[in-house]
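Sequence, please.
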């Protein structure tokens, strides 16, 4: 379905802010009711503000996103929400949902299609309620009681934030804590750095959405990451140093425990006899020279015995007879004696 896209200046219907262009400031929409311009007529900043307001009221991201869909006449899909909620990111949940819903599968759909799929489009007398989160309670007049942020979270981040802000900060803290080994307890300094990193990430995200410059904030974030030893170059260097400082015996134990070497194929077991060769002619010879009597020395002596030549012994014969027998020159010697 073709969409008519307009790049003219636009004014946000909610806050009245005038923008020189729609791209980058207004979310793209493929719904039929936005076909004329291809954008939602409310800027991203206002959408995030509305979403944060609903989230602080109901303390349930799913209900807040669905309420925004009803407010903006967008199609609600629980499967799309589940995909978005599993991602760990600093971007607004609603911004991600709108990007995911703008696909071919949901093009042209609105909140009417949601109600039609659920069979409640024309049930004006029936009250429809979504699944209520376990952390909320309702009174007799169906008013939702919003639970306050737990005291330990407020003590960690400090007072003065909204419930939605505490929720986003906790998401970022859980993300960074997942980068440390399980069971790691941070010292006071590292904990303070993580707190500042999470806060600065949210500030950068809000400034970027509002079209403000974030260069100084990004530099400050890089400095904090360096102080916390969380830069990629530092992680690589620390990993290399840890490998160098690991004793050789520890590496052997790791390999034997985690990836033990399998037994060799019988046809490939010392096919060249190199093990026996070293045992006999190196270890055996060495033990023989040092006067050490052991298995290696015995193997060496057995191999030497196989190559040793014993001198023959002659009985009742003089040295001349032995000499003649060895060298075979008996006839030439007798001829020499007769000539003399």
């Amino acid at each position: 379905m073709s969409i008519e896209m307009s790049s003219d200046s636009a004014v946000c219907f909610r806050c009245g802010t005038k923008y020189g262009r729609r791209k980058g400031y207004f979310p793209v929409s493929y719904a039929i009711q936005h076909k004329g311009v291809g954008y939602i007529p409310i800027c991203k900043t206002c959408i995030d503000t509305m979403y944060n307001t609903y989230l602080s009221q109901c303390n349930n991201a799913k209900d807040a996103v669905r309420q925004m869909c009803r407010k903006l006449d967008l199609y609600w899909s629980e499967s799309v929400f589940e995909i978005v909620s599993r991602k760990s990111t600093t971007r607004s949940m609603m911004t991600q949902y709108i990007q995911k819903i703008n696909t071919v599968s949901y093009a042209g759909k609105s909140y009417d299609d949601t109600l039609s799929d659920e069979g409640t489009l024309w049930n004006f007398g029936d009250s429809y309620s979504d699944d209520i989160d376990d952390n909320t309670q309702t009174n007799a007049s169906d008013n939702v009681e919003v639970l306050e942020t737990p005291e330990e979270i407020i003590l960690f981040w400090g007072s003065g934030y909204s419930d939605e802000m505490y929720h986003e900060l906790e998401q970022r803290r859980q993300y960074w804590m997942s980068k440390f080994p399980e069971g790691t307890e941070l010292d006071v300094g590292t904990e303070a750095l993580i707190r500042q990193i999470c806060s600065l990430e949210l500030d950068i995200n809000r400034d970027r959405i509002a079209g403000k410059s974030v260069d100084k904030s990004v530099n400050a974030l890089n400095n904090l990451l360096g102080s916390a030893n969380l830069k990629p170059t530092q992680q690589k260097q620390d990993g290399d140093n840890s490998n160098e400082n690991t004793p050789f015996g520890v590496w052997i134990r790791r390999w034997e425990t985690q990836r033990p070497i399998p037994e060799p194929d019988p046809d490939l077991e010392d096919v060249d006899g190199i093990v026996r060769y070293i045992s006999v002619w190196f270890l055996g010879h060495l033990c023989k020279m040092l006067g050490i009597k052991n298995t290696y020395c015995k193997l060496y002596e057995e191999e030497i015995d196989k190559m040793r030549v014993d001198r023959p012994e002659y009985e009742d014969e003089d040295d001349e007879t032995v000499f003649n027998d060895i060298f075979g020159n008996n006839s030439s010697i007798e001829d020499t004696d007769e000539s003399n």
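The chain has three domains: 10-122, 151-230, 272-333.
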